[in-house]
Amino acid sequence: MNIISLISYPFLPAKSGGQKGIALFYKYFSKYHQVTCIGTRKNDPALAEGYELMNILPDSSFRYVNPFIFFTIRRWIRDKKATHLILEHPYYGWLGFLLKKICGVRLIVHSHNIEATRWRGLGKWWWRILWNYEKFTHRQADYNFFIQDEDRYYAISAFGLKENSCLTVSFGTEIPSAPSEEKKLSSRKILHQQFQIPEDKSLLLFNGAFGYSPNREALDNLLFRINPILQDRGRSYLILILGLDIPSSILNSSYPDVQVLGFVENLELYLLGCDAFLNPVRSGGGIKTKLVEALAYNLTAVSTVHGSIGVDPGICNGKLIISPDHNWSLFTDAIIRALDSEASISGDFYKHFYWVNITKRAADFIDY
Questions:
Q1: Domain around 26
Q2: Chain-wide mean pLDDT for the chain?
Q3: Are 226 and 280 in contact (CB under 8 A)?
Q4: Is 90 exceeded by the pLDDT of residue 368?
Q5: Are residues 333 and 221 in the same domain?
Q6: Are 334 and 320 in contact (CB under 8 A)?
Q7: Cis amide bond preceding 13, omega within 30
């Protein structure tokens, strides 16, 4: 099959979870089908692995309503003899509809959230307009990919989609199995030396893209609600906060038992070397990509109920501890349990979340 994908925002270099999700999906999906991605001009095509990336979409926000884009994409479909067109997110639904009708391609909509409900949760008045547009877009598709099961079930029911046209295509990991204990101990030693802390001090990790308001809210919860309670629990610990767009007011302040690092190039070192991952997220849609990454590195994770959506604790063998969304005292108790846990992630986790398996399921699904 020859597939063209429309990706309407910058994703290379991939730093945030959403950007990684797109870059890694096509890295592995392109092993099964020929893929040409059409993206915005701010991408770095040299970073595309396994697929061709053409930076031809304008960066202006008006690109979503620019009718002339139709003629550009139509030409690429014809030149590449494309059989399928993938829309990343539903925003180019009008364009996908026209190209399907005129060029005869099969349309795939790759959803990363139910966008309308996500924007409703963020208080946007226009979410109902988007809901109807999103419904229209998914109903035009021959195949619909959803990031987690709850989104898929919702879309089948609310949008009236055929169940056999829908598939869960989760965010994944490139790690096929748990890292060795030797590697984790070595990384832990490096971090303890880096921060000049004793070996018995536990390292707790939280990372994310903090320009996204649900992650910013989670950061405030961690600093101002969870950490004060945790200080009274009598454990020796250091919380490491990593990620993009941390507000300067936090970067330039100090908090007891907290180290705010910002963006780091070698996230793997922290995923391997920390003792627990914290996910106090209470809003936002989709699957929390940082939670999948942490569990893949056999890092015990503590999450709110909302933050764990899309990750079945039943395949995590005790490595995912879930706490109620609004009770930070119970969340802190769960952190203590995580630090005392000797569980190890199960093989079933990798069967579900390994990118090779995820993209094989997606490739087979559109083959039938």
A1: 2-171
A2: 95
A3: yes
A4: no
A5: yes
A6: no
A7: yes
